[in-house]
Amino acid sequence: MLALLADEESVVDPAAVVVPEAYERAFAAIESDPRNEILVLVEGTGYQGDDGTVVGSLQATYIPGLGKGGVERALIEAVRVRADRRGGGLGRILMERATARARTRGCELIQLASDKRREDAHRFYVALGFANSHEGFKLTL
């Protein structure tokens, strides 16, 4: 999964990825928090003990909200599909699973942000029914 995050535009060998302590802490925090989860698409798993190849992933955080009448919402972040596998429907599968998980948890809204430069991603989200409805802001601390 970290290989997907390492470089969006190329395929990174997972064996070459060093896992910094910060990622270890982040994974542990996500795993222990019932309002956070990571969805992972793995290809090539089988009965022969093959661990498969991670071809997509995302993080979902479930947030109780005061806006929109107090509805629960899902925040989707770090959506990645392996560079050589884009355009084949994996992203759609991943997002459909995330949507189903959000509905199961009682969420009435999914929100996500995407870098302004990622025009292909924007077209993808619009094709899935997302509306480009807000301007986002960040403050680096």
Topology:
Layout: H1 2-6, H2 21-32, E1 36-43, E2 53-64, E3 72-81, H3 90-104, E4 109-112, H4 119-127
Parallel strand pairs: 3-4
Antiparallel strand pairs: 1-2, 2-3
Describe this structure in words.
By secondary structure, this protein is an alpha+beta fold. It contains 4 helices and 4 strands; from the N terminus they run ααβββαβα. A hairpin with a 7-residue loop joins strand 2 and strand 3. The chain is globular. It starts with a helix and ends in a 14-residue tail after the last helix. The model has no long low-confidence stretch (mean pLDDT 90).
Task: Supply the key terms.
alpha+beta, 29% helix, 24% strand, globular, 141 residues, four-stranded mixed beta sheet
